[in-house]
Amino acid sequence: MVEKRVQPLARDAMAYVLAGGRGSRLKELTDRRAKPAVYFGGKTRIIDFALSNALNSGIRRIGVATQYKAHSLIRHMQRGWNFFRPERNESFDILPASQRVSETQWYEGTADAVYQNIDIIQDYGVEYMVILAGDHIYKMDYEHMLQQHVDSGADVTIGCLEVPRMEATGFGVVHVDDKDRIIDFVEKPADPPAIPGKPDSSFASMGIYVFHTKFLIDALRRDAADPNSSKDFGKDIIPYIVKNGKAVAHRFANSCVRSDFEHEPYWRDVGTIDAYWQANIDLTAIVPELDIYDKSWPIWTYAEISPPAKFVHDDEDRRGSATSSVVAGDCIISGATLNKSLLFTGVRANSYSKLEGAVVLPSVKIGRHAQLKDVVIDHGVVIPEGLIVGEDPVLDAKRFRRSEGGICLITQPMIDKLGL
């Protein structure tokens, strides 16, 4: 029997967040920013969820590896995550690909993004490493996963999400025995292995890994010396450990943080325009599946100082109003009508405009008489007066990025091409 320590394991762990991915399926939303820096939920960025999970779990040493178009991401973290103090044994390191190992080598893969910073990890002397993806929306207490890792004697513990079996074809899928030991790791299988006792479900890897630090460093060095490796956790490191060591699955349901209003474990990869729009619009429900109002597990972010939202005008056809909507600070709804929409900070919606199913990023200006339905509007876009989107699919597809699900992404260069 393993003796449980009084001090939480998280206090002797470092969270290492992989935040270098482009997220190309988000199209023009990631033309100027990495996927983890994309806005979400009215105030936050996607990366804030992984970082807040680490902070709320008690982890006080955090590193974030960045690469693709990282300026907005780095600026966000410098503004919003600069409160860690070394005198309290806390640290927050931003680790851009800086050719520290080779003068010609950027981060080649997720494993290489950790390998190139081994010296920094060793300097902190932490006993455990929690490797995280920086581009998913969820709430999770990593302390439970750390405790399972220690109790099971695993070489690696992998966070796993239970999904319908035939929906697992797009994930890395872990095949487990009846004790949750991983016996195979398959990338995007056509016929995913089922969970024992649950023939219609599979375990999808969440890209969350726990290691003892020494074991991880040894594994990274061995992998780096392999000329045939792609330097990736999912493709190289994890399959090697499954074959030659002990890999154990951690069930997300056991550590998912839920308020009284959240009934099912919530995890979303908002990697497509449709998924991104849906996850944001879901927050406008009376009882959303994700409770962002849960004060026991706050999602920390850079919160700029802004005045409250304001709704003005009360004429019959010119009434500033919102139903089933989320509206951030510094928004002025001036005679506009919102329904089932989510507005980020600093939006201006002018008279007679109508928004339905709209996800509107910060500092957007919406002209009079505009009618916008099922849209995502990028940061700082100026919507011209009278623009109609959401009524003519053919016309919309010619002018904007229209997704398979019928959602229109609108950016300023698209507006400029209209010549309005």
From TrEMBL:
Site positions for Could play a key role in the communication between the regulatory and the substrate sites: 67, 106
Domain Nucleotidyl transferase: 16-284
Glucose-1-phosphate adenylyltransferase/Bifunctional protein GlmU-like C-terminal hexapeptide domain segment(s): 307-410
Binding site for alpha-D-glucose 1-phosphate: 107, 172, 187-188, 205
EC number: 2.7.7.27
Enzyme class: transferase
SUPFAM superfamilies: Nucleotide-diphospho-sugar transferases, Trimeric LpxA-like enzymes
Pathway: Glycan biosynthesis; glycogen biosynthesis
Single GO molecular function: ATP binding
Keyword annotations of the record: ATP-binding, Carbohydrate metabolism, Glycogen biosynthesis, Glycogen metabolism, Nucleotide-binding, Nucleotidyltransferase, Transferase
Entry-linked Pfam families: Hexapep_GlmU (PF24894), NTP_transferase (PF00483)
Subunit structure of this chain's protein: Homotetramer.
Function summary: Involved in the biosynthesis of ADP-glucose, a building block required for the elongation reactions to produce glycogen. Catalyzes the reaction between ATP and alpha-D-glucose 1-phosphate (G1P) to produce pyrophosphate and ADP-Glc.
Record family assignment: Belongs to the bacterial/plant glucose-1-phosphate adenylyltransferase family.
Protein name in UniProt: Glucose-1-phosphate adenylyltransferase
Organism: Rhizobium grahamii
Taxonomic lineage: Bacteria, Pseudomonadati, Pseudomonadota, Alphaproteobacteria, Hyphomicrobiales
